[in-house]
Design brief:
2 helices; Immunoglobulin-like; about 200 residues; 2 domains; 12 strands
């Protein structure tokens, strides 16, 4: 009885784990192959630019070109994945790694598969995404919002916005301006004596 219960629990756990894992379907060489992200949502698709692939053990195909498209709503800074090929008996007979930099939503880019050793004439293929690095912070928007003048709202306390300290300064002596930088001394002639002035940040 205990053995049957343990077996049932093990099977239920295996089914739950399998349901959470994204499964990439195999496609014919003339169809697009789709890969999912870690949450199971469709992320990228790829189409082969060459569909006549005739590899063998003696003369393997070493590289293929494909077009990778971002079908997700997000921007990818970096994409890598595997293109895997299967023969007519559904036996894997070659795989190669592809990569694409900076792929916007609905944007396509050409890629190749260096390191591929395709030793059959495949009938199906699939792709698997291994890295989908998304854009995290829009730096320009962050700086613009941080340096924007706050809007006065009655009854609402203004947030304190820290602005970056300026890098260049100007010293004005009797209307005569002298540029100075932090930790970069300047020498001024005051009367008949030379004075060295240095601007440093306070500890």
């Amino acid at each position: 009885m205990r053995l049957a219960i343990a077996f049932a629990i093990l099977m239920a756990a295996a089914i739950a784990v399998a349901a959470q894992q994204p499964v990439e379907q195999r496609s014919s060489l003339t169809e697009a192959a789709v890969a999912a992200d870690a949450k199971g949502a469709q992320a990228i698709e790829a189409r082969l630019m060459t569909t006549m692939l005739n590899g063998s053990d003696d003369s393997p195909v070493m590289n293929v070109k494909l077009v990778v498209k971002n079908i997700s709503p997000g921007f990818y800074n970096y994409v890598t994945g595997w293109a895997t090929f299967y023969d007519s008996a559904a036996v894997r007979c070659g795989e190669g790694l592809f990569k694409v930099d900076a792929l916007a939503p609905n944007e396509s880019a050409e890629a190749d598969t260096p390191g591929l050793r395709l030793h059959c004439s495949p009938s199906t293929w699939r792709i698997t995404a291994t890295n989908l690095l998304t854009r995290t912070v829009d730096v320009a928007k962050f700086v613009a919002e941080a340096t924007a003048a706050p809007v006065d709202t009655p009854g609402v306390e203004k947030p304190v916005v820290e602005r970056p300290a300026p890098i260049n300064f100007i010293i004005s002596i009797d209307g005569e301006e002298h540029p100075i930088q932090v930790n970069n001394p300047i020498v001024l002639n005051l009367g008949n004596r030379s004075r060295t002035i240095m601007l440093r940040s306070a500890p």
